[in-house]
Design goal:
four-stranded antiparallel sheet; 23% strand; signal
């Protein structure tokens, strides 16, 4: 009797039960399974057919939006991203005499503290004498330029025999202090007077004393200059 009942149950339960109790896709109503029906952390990568999730992926035990390129789920490589900018952060260290003592490459001095021919408003020709003009070896129109004073505690700039930066009083430590301005030479915006400097390949750096007055021989400043941005057009 028991054998007859068991045979009847198998015959009326369909092929999925008869086949070792497996449930196939045809046995599940569309859109009927929910997250609550699946045990946490029970699905593994091998359980998911490649490419079957479309724009979604199984990540950290949860189905999440796939932000990667299409095809990444089935192992296909996505398109290569754009190349990064070349030569980002080029720099140079310019000594107090206007010579480059260290650099990452591409900088040359065009004019260092030059004395130019006199003009009607500058009889001594000193209008460029406080500046250093540097050729960056590229068009700087798509770059940023920065400069900063570099301390020099082995040179007594004001003759007080104190180079430690601890002299009392305002503007008493020129070895550690000062101002500096920098810009790309651009006729009509930043005019640069020395020959071969009136172009966007050249930057002008103007180190100053703490009170804004131009430096002179004996109290010049050393400084760093940095070019940022895309330097792929560097010659």
């Amino acid at each position: 009797m028991a054998v007859s009942v068991l045979a009847l149950v198998i015959a009326t339960s369909g092929t999925s039960v008869a086949a070792a109790g497996l449930i196939g896709s045809d046995d599940v109503k569309n859109d009927s399974l929910k997250s609550a029906d699946i045990k946490d952390n029970s699905l593994k990568g091998r359980d998911i057919k490649n490419g079957s999730l479309g724009g979604w992926e199984l990540r950290d035990g949860t189905v999440k939006k796939n932000d990667l390129a299409p095809g990444i789920l089935d192992g296909a490589a996505g398109p290569a991203g754009p190349a990064g900018p070349a030569g980002v952060g080029r720099w140079a260290l310019v000594d107090a005499d206007g010579t480059i003592v260290a650099q990452s490459g591409g900088f040359t001095i065009t004019a260092a503290y030059p004395t130019l021919a006199p003009t009607a408003t500058d009889a001594a020709g000193l209008r460029a004498n406080g500046n250093v003009y540097i050729n960056a070896g590229e068009n700087l129109a798509n770059n940023g330029v920065l400069a900063t004073i570099a301390l020099q505690n082995t040179v007594d700039l004001n003759g007080d025999a104190i180079t430690s930066g601890r002299a009392p009083g305002a503007d008493s430590n020129p070895e550690f202090s000062g101002e500096v301005a920098v810009a790309m030479c651009q006729p009509g915006t930043v005019n640069c007077a020395p020959p071969n400097t009136g172009n966007t390949n050249t930057l002008v750096v103007s180190p100053r004393n703490s009170d804004g007055s131009p430096t002179t021989n004996g109290n010049r400043k050393r400084f760093y200059v940095v070019v940022t941005g895309d330097s792929s057009d560097r010659s």
